[in-house]
Amino acid sequence: MSDIPAVMKAIDGIESQIKAYADKAEAEAKARGQVDTDTKTAIDNLGIKQRELADELLQIKQKGIQMPGQTKLVEGWGDQFVKSDAYKAFAGGNTQKARIEVKNTLTGADATVAPDRKPGIVPGAFQPLTIESLYRHVPTSSNAVEFTKEASFTNSAAEAAEGAAKAESALTFSLVNMPISTVAHWIKISRQLAADNAALAAYVDLRMRYGVNRKVETQLVAGDGVAPNISGFLDTGNFTAHGYADANLGSTLKKLALIRKIIGDLEAAGYNPDAIVLNPADWATIEIDLFTTAAGQTLRAVADDGVTRLFGRRVVSSVGMTADNVAVGAFGDHGTIYDREGVIVEMSDSDSDNFTKNLITLRAERRLALASEVPAAVRAGDLTPA
Fold this sequence. Notes:
Elements: H1 4-32, H2 37-62, H3 77-82, H4 85-91, E1 136-139, E2 144-154, E3 170-179, E4 181-190, H5 191-196, H6 198-222, E5 240-241, H7 254-268, E6 275-278, H8 280-292, E7 300-302, E8 308-310, E9 313-317, E10 325-329, H9 331-334, E11 335-348, H10 354-357, E12 359-372, E13 378-382
Parallel strand pairs: 1-11, 5-13, 6-9
Antiparallel strand pairs: 2-3, 4-12, 6-10, 7-8, 8-9, 10-13, 11-12
Helix pairs in contact: 1-2
């Protein structure tokens, strides 16, 4: 039996049979003074069947099988199997195998169940930007910056006898004009998105601002100065080449030896270097050398402020730094970042066919220049020279 109505119908049939046999037994007792054995056996069997049906009815109710007027519950494959006649025959020892066809069970595909929607946006990568922190920032209201810098100095100072001619030194200057560069990009979004999803619109704004500053990071290092590019500190004339070859660096820990020699050269020239700039992959290689050699373990230190230092100088790991290059410098003396405009994000529906398509163009841009005023304050070049 598979449901309550069928079981109840069977119980009604059993009760009708029991009543019929009871009437027969009563007639036999009046006629002969006793009930026939066949009649007793039939009544006993009907009683057993009645109790079995009562137990089955109880089990159906406990398992929550369909009641009249109730919504039918979905049975799992296991429930369908153990209730099948094939399984009952197998469990009773009447067959050595059981095979049944089960109905598919709905698992997790109910479209009426609302998803657990989490707030906010899962962000992509935002790489650390570090180069700007090396320089002082000065605002400007012009489209170009001019400054006078020392071009050369010949120091001829010497001892002089009384009444003798004194030595003459030479000092020349040059006027430098540095145009303000613009770094910008744009993207289109629907007006509905801007109005209906504030979190996503704010994330787009954040990503646009990051995109501008990420490009500035690279330009401050490697921009070639050809308009509209920024003139980065590795641009020709903005730094002093370290001048070392592989033969000058000994046989082990060559990258460390190179960095230490550059620090020494800067100090000898009158500059106190405040940072060592490396590509993240190159710094990882150097750290491995430091960790795996007894001599190197004493050269690296992390201060209480979390700043990593090598030979007492701050290590700046920058995604903008060209791979397999190194720059060591007194960046505070080297130059100035002139800010014409910070990152500005503007939007307009008047771009192209935006108005008819309900689109908005977002444009992010920034205007700035790097003035490398003292090229001798930064020494740079190949990290693994030939």
